Amino acid sequence: MNIGIVCYPTFGGSGVVATELGIALAKKGHNVHFITYKRPVRLESFYENIFYHEVNSMSYPLFEYEPYETALASKLVDVVKSARLDLLHVHYAIPHAAVAFTAKSILAAEGIPLPVVTTLHGTDITLVGNDRSFAPVVQFSINNSDGVTAVSEYLKVKTLNTFNIKKDIEVIYNFIDFTRFKKVDKDHFKKVLAPNGEKIIAHTSNFRKVKRVQDVIKAFSKIVKKTPALLLLIGDGPERRSLEDLCMELGLCDQIRFLGKQNAVEELLAISDLFIIPSEDESFGLAALEAMACEVPVISTNVGGLPEVNIHNKTGFLSEIGDVENMASNALSLLTDESKLSSFGQSALAQAKEFEIDKILPKYENYYQEIIQRVRSKKYNSSLIHE
């Protein structure tokens, strides 16, 4: 198949999933075309059947902001024609599904069918709960996609409860690539960071308010009173300054490392003993899954799609939002018991294997074929009616 993928080319979960999906599809022999404003961060290597099409939006004195959506729609039309795309897969309803509808309409006027699959990742749905101005466009875009997928059962239900959706939503979970995320011997690296055998706790996110990274630090402040530990904060975002201030306020600057955005996050997870993700909303929890693939137990909140990934008292523990006392207590129960920590790590790995890319990828391939056949059938039936 010739497949077009539209995504945000950032460190966020949707961009990571879209890029890893494209790479996996290319390895299976499909031609994959990424269409976005910047090369995706996870697209690091050269593949002969992966193509990148940069969207350039021009600046005009008339516009206060560059019309990116218009430029993207035009680029999609060009790529569909030149690359003879069989299907377009857009990640995020805002604005990609709406832009895909525009491109699809332009192409339809020329008699060119464009099957469109939209994958919902979370913020594109939960965001409209706070800003209803997006709701009509999101609802229209979903209902006018040829296929719609969600990354968790939670997100599917959330979408159906938030909008008047007339389409079936297929749940296809996020996935993990075990050729990249796995436990490897990095003891030399671990000794550099924790020379006295301190336990290493990790957190990775985009440091937005919804991630509640301050709860990681507050829980860590309680953990470190009972056992020697080091906290790795991987990522960056709008909350970083306040997080640094909190570290200074609690006197933890020597035990907390702000590592910024990292391409090789798997190397940091490989030396970690525990992962904390205290989000107030999480459509799936890809960061938790990546940690579990590296045999790292997870302390998380009991929200969104996280309980579908992190199994309480087996792969880690679930706590209520903001309950840092419970998070710290659960963390200590693992960090102070090597046998329990190892057992939970093995359970985390077993659970992660349920989301192995080789199990998830065929679901996307089959769904693509189903949508392509459905669209082609509609076009054929429509032509018969006009005749």
Would you identify the CATH architecture of the largest domain? Answer: 3-Layer(aba) Sandwich
**Can you tell me the CATH superfamily of the largest domain?**
Glycogen Phosphorylase B
How many domains is the backbone divided into?
2
Query: How many DSSP H or I helices?
Result: 15
Q: Which H/E pattern describes the elements? A: EHEEHEHEHHEHEHEHEHEHEHEHEHHH
Amino-to-carboxy terminus distance? 30 Å
Largest sheet: 7 strands, parallel
Q: Please report the first level of CATH classification, the CATH class of the largest domain.
A: Alpha Beta
Structural class, from secondary structure content? alpha/beta
Lateral arrangement of strands in the main beta sheet: 3-2-1-4-5-6-7
In percent, how much strand structure appears in the residues? Answer: 15-25%
From the 3D structure, determine the CATH topology of the largest domain. Rossmann fold
General shape: elongated
What does it look like?
This protein is of the alpha/beta class. It folds into two domains: 2-175 and 358-386, Rossmann fold, CATH 3.40.50; 187-355, Rossmann fold (3-Layer(aba) Sandwich). Helix content is 46%, strand content 17%. It has 15 helices and 13 strands. The protein has helices spanning 13-27, 68-83, 93-109, 123-130, 135-143, 153-162, 187-193, 213-223, 240-250, 265-269, 286-293, 306-309, 324-335, 338-352, 357-386, and strands spanning 2-6, 31-36, 50-54, 87-91, 116-120, 147-150, 169-171, 199-205, 229-235, 256-260, 274-277, 298-301, 316-319. The strands form two sheets. It has a seven-stranded parallel beta sheet with strand order 3-2-1-4-5-6-7, sandwiched between helices. It has a six-stranded parallel beta sheet with strand order 10-9-8-11-12-13, with helices on both faces. The protein is elongated. The protein starts with a strand and ends with a helix.
